[in-house]
Specification:
Its EC number is 3.2.1.52. Keywords: Glycosidase, Hydrolase, Signal. This is beta-N-acetylhexosaminidase. There is one protein chain. The protein is of the alpha/beta class and about 850 residues long. The protein has four domains: about 150 residues, Immunoglobulin-like (Sandwich), CATH 2.60.40; about 120 residues, Chitobiase/beta-hexosaminidase domain 2-like (Chitobiase, domain 2); about 290 residues, TIM Barrel (Alpha-Beta Barrel); about 100 residues, Immunoglobulins (Immunoglobulin-like), CATH 2.60.40. The chain is about 25% helix and about 20% strand. The protein has 22 helices and 34 strands. The protein has an eight-stranded parallel beta barrel, surrounded by six helices. α6 packs parallel to α7, α8 packs parallel to α10 and α13 packs parallel to α15. It is globular and about 90 Å long.
Length: about 850
């Protein structure tokens, strides 16, 4: 038996060593052996290549396996994800092919010379734009052959980008482009040190008293209320839901307070009173909070006001106290700046699990945000179960290697070839109803988004799969009922995200039947949760130019002189009008992204064509030199209700600092840290014009744009502001939380509170004082509270400088612990004051929160 085993082992080994014949298929074990032992590495070679239009990159294969890639044509392909469309057609004997979206493949040609064990193959290529950050590259490159199970290159099956991306260190890698010159700074220790420098110091006591978001009127008094389990709660009967959430929150501090309706006498026991009364001077969502030694009174203009008063009380709790909590005596009068205080979360690109949604909604309520824009449908995924349309989640919620897309969507964004890959999944109907109830209890309205007509590939492909299944079953009428594409459409287009087939056909009645079906099911979920669907977003943005022009269904519409559709330019407003009318009949206010409501760069669709009293527009494109950053004013002046969602300050998928190791896209701004978000001034859109995309300071916005900038004539149509997180580069729950927190708190501050430093220009002295209080409160209590709630927060990398042999260090958040290593990370000590260093080369620094949470480390320059 042992001899037979040895012979078998030798036979297998011999098979692995023999190069396969051209066109021969590999089996699964061979694919796995090759990808397990061959490294696949991306590299940025040169961003100084072609202005800002393209860059040079490479893929390197190091064959450490015992299998040779044979010369010439063969039945294998290597698939990889690239958000930058590859322009090179052939290199190193391999043909580059764009499949769709970010998916590309390498196919061997007759010119391929093979790759033997021990050899290295470099494959140079040119791609669009530039890459100056590791996360622009996507993980999970994989290999296929014949019917064998696809195999991921093991070193790319990782969230550590350096496992499959070569270091980005040289000037022509760190710069995005040389012409125009990239003027953005580089995040070095000394640059951070200068950025973090601020005069004066805030006392710990004052920082602990800082409430986020800052109340309108605060008057602290002497003394403290010492909360313990000997206290009780009395509440107006209508506040039962708010009391339930309050008791849950108190339990986090070891407090279990008995709560009774206010018709039951409180006696002489120390009591928290929760009341509702008309507060005309404060209005909707306003509240008063009075804390005394033995009594706390929260009076709200409405239930929401009481809830927000409770959040301000909780904000005064020190993070670490348990069982007994000291709260400073205070009188607060407060009301929100805006009625719309929103957070947008893209779950379509990547799904991060049910808990990520609940944690986000919980923290939104904590910081007085009230609109949760849930982007559950996209090109790359559909994330909500819809009764009657199981294909939306059976197929649309998963990406894998299925070129026919009958089992799943085409793999994208680093998911790899298997359904178990990152970003897959969805929320069931029952889970969504649970989320709606959870959000309602925290005064958070969930606004879902059915993305269309563009960015709709997931729903399009799911409905195509449904169509094919029902046609095969001999049910043509059912098959066509919700079809979103015209099988005869030969239109050619490519979107910003490199898709060629992601536009719903707006000329088909079945498209509107689909939207109505999904809307109907959503309304049922809201009713079951005890609430109403009053706002529904339909996207509208980034429709590929050329969509529908060669669709026979649309051509027939153009030929009909009586339908108001004369040509392709009429199709987007036609779609918008039909959807808006559909929503109006159901009592729903529609919402869209700004470019979904524009004929061109400056002319919005005719507002009078839509029957909706409220029609919200998320205005995002404030790339100043592109000349469309005045759309907030144009849309508001035309009667749309505007939600400021500007990319430069409010996109939390952008890096925190200009460093290649920071996660996120950076098309709107090279970086957006918490301080920049905190500095956003919603009352004067143009006052936020600070830098161009290349990093040049903007001195004269009108001169940059080359025309007059329209004034805001109807300020009442600016509803508020909203933060956005798009998830192309965000594959895990921990990653999405780090991108959102703590920037969400800075955005919440601006949505709730108008600062005294706001104006045509920032009052720098008053801003610095306000930022110092905010950031110190983050460091001393808010970050710890978030961590205790299971939220993975981002910690700023410290700044440092050696001056006269002394190491000086600081943090963007005053009072955040800084640690120093003098032995290249072998040991760490807390930085408390300037310290002598003899060898700067070995010095590392990082910030720390608690015992387990650290920032990225930095070296001295």
């Amino acid at each position: 038996m042992k001899i037979q085993k040895k012979l078998l082992t030798r036979a297998i080994a011999a098979t692995l060593l023999v190069p396969m014949m051209a066109k021969a298929a590999w089996d699964s074990s061979q694919l796995q052996a090759f990808t397990d032992n061959t490294t696949f590495m991306f590299a940025v070679e040169n961003n100084h290549h072609n202005g800002s239009s393209s860059f040079l990159a490479s893929i390197t294969l190091q064959n450490n396996s015992k299998i040779a890639l044979p010369a010439g044509e063969s039945d294998w392909q290597i698939y990889f994800h690239s958000i930058r469309k590859v322009a090179t057609q052939q290199a190193a004997g391999l043909k580059f092919e764009h499949v769709n979206g970010d998916l590309h493949r390498l196919v061997p040609t007759k010119a391929f010379t093979g790759l033997k064990p021990g050899e290295t193959l470099e494959i140079p290529y040119e791609a669009a734009a530039w890459i100056a950050a590791y996360t622009d590259f996507m993980p999970r490159a994989f290999m296929v052959s014949g019917d064998a199970k696809p195999a991921v290159f093991t070193n790319t099956d990782s969230e550590n980008m350096l496992d499959f991306v070569a270091p980005i260190e040289r000037d022509n890698q760190l710069d995005r482009h040389a012409e125009p010159k990239d003027l953005s700074p580089r995040a070095t220790a000394s640059w951070r040190y200068e950025q973090n420098q601020q005069a004066g110091k805030l006392s710990r006591e004052d920082a602990l008293k800082r409430i986020i978001p800052k109340p309108m009127d605060v008057d602290f008094n002497r003394g403290y209320a010492e909360l313990s389990n000997q206290w009780q709660i009395r509440y107006a009967g209508r506040l039962k839901s708010e009391v339930t959430v309050f008791q849950e929150d108190l339990a986090d501090y070891g407090l279990k307070l008995d709560a009774q309706p206010d018709h039951i006498s409180a006696g002489k026991t120390k009591t928290i009173y929760l009341r509702v009364a008309e507060l005309a001077e404060l209005g909707s969502e306003g509240y008063q909070l009075e804390v005394d030694d033995d009594k706390i009174v929260i009076t709200g203009h409405d239930n929401a006001g009481v809830f927000y008063g409770i959040q301000s009380l909780l904000a005064l709790f020190p993070a670490e106290q348990q069982g007994q909590v000291s709260v400073p005596n205070v009188d607060i009068k407060d009301a929100p700046r805006f009625g719309w205080r929103g957070m947008h979360y893209d779950n379509g690109r990547n799904y991060h699990g049910k808990e990520a949604l609940f944690k986000l909604v919980e923290q939104m309520g904590r910081y007085k945000l009230n609109k949760f824009h849930w982007h559950f449908s996209e090109d790359e995924g559909w994330r909500l179960e819809i009764p009657g349309l199981p294909e939306l989640t059976d197929i649309g919620a998963y990406r894998c290697f299925d070129l026919d897309e009958r089992e799943c969507l085409l793999t994208q964004l680093g998911t790899g070839p298997h359904k178990s890959g990152s970003g897959n999944g969805y929320l069931t109907r029952d889970e969504f109803v649970e989320l709606l109830k959870f959000a309602k209890a925290r005064h958070v309205q969930i606004i879902p988004e059915i993305e269309g007509p563009g960015h709709a590939r997931a729903s399009i492909k799911a409905m195509e799969a449904r169509y094919h299944t029902l046609m095969e079953a001999g049910k043509p009428e059912q098959a066509r009922a919700y079809l979103l594409s015209d099988p005869q459409d030969t239109s050619k287009y490519i979107t910003v995200q490199n898709y060629t087939d992601n536009s719903m056909n707006v000329c088909q009645d079945s498209t509107y039947a689909f939207i109505e079906k999904v809307t109907y099911e959503l309304q049922g979920m809201y009713r079951e949760a005890g609430t109403r669907l009053t706002n529904l977003h339909f996207g509208g943005d980034e429709v590929g130019a050329g969509s529908w022009v060669d669709s026979p269904v649309c051509q027939a519409m153009f030929a009909d002189p009586n339908n108001g559709v004369a040509g392709p330019a009429d199709l987007k407003p036609y779609f918008t009008q039909r959807v808006a009318t559909l929503f109006a009949k159901r009592g729903i206010a529609p919402g869209a992204w700004e470019d979904g409501l524009m004929y061109d760069r400056v002319n919005p669709f005719n507002r009078d064509a839509f029957p909706n009293e409220v029609f919200t527009a998320n205005v995002w494109d404030n790339i100043w030199e592109w000349g469309v950053a005045d759309r907030a004013h144009r849309l508001a002046n035309d009667g749309y209700q505007v939600v400021l969602s500007h990319g430069t300050h409010l996109y939390f998928d952008h890096p925190y600092e200009p460093h290649p190791a920071e996660r996120g896209y950076y098309w709107a701004a090279r970086y957006t840290d918490s301080k920049k978000t905190f500095s956003y001034m919603p009352d004067d859109v143009y006052a936020n014009a600070d830098f161009t995309r290349s990093g040049a300071p903007i001195e004269n916005l009108e001169a940059l744009v080359g025309r007059a900038m329209p004034a805001l004539e109807k300020p009442e149509n600016i509803l508020g502001i909203q933060g956005q997180v798009w998830s192309e580069t965000i594959r895990t729950e921990a990653q999405v939380q780090a991108m959102v927190f703590p920037r969400l708190l800075a955005m919440a501050e601006r949505a709730w509170h108008k600062a005294g430093w706001e104006g045509k220009r920032i009052d720098k002295k008053r801003f610095a004082q306000d930022w110092r209080g905010f950031s110190a409160a983050l460091a001393l209590k808010e970050l710890t509270k978030l961590a205790k709630a299971g939220v993975n927060v981002n910690l700023p990398v410290p700044g440092a400088k050696v001056i006269d042999g002394q190491l000086y260090a600081n943090s963007a958040f005053e009072y955040l612990t800084i640690e120093v290593s003098l032995d290249k990370g072998e040991s760490w000590q807390t930085y408390t004051a300037p310290m002598s260093v003899s060898n700067a080369d070995g010095v590392l620094l990082r910030t720390r929160l608690g015992d387990k949470k650290f920032s990225r480390t930095t070296r001295l320059d």
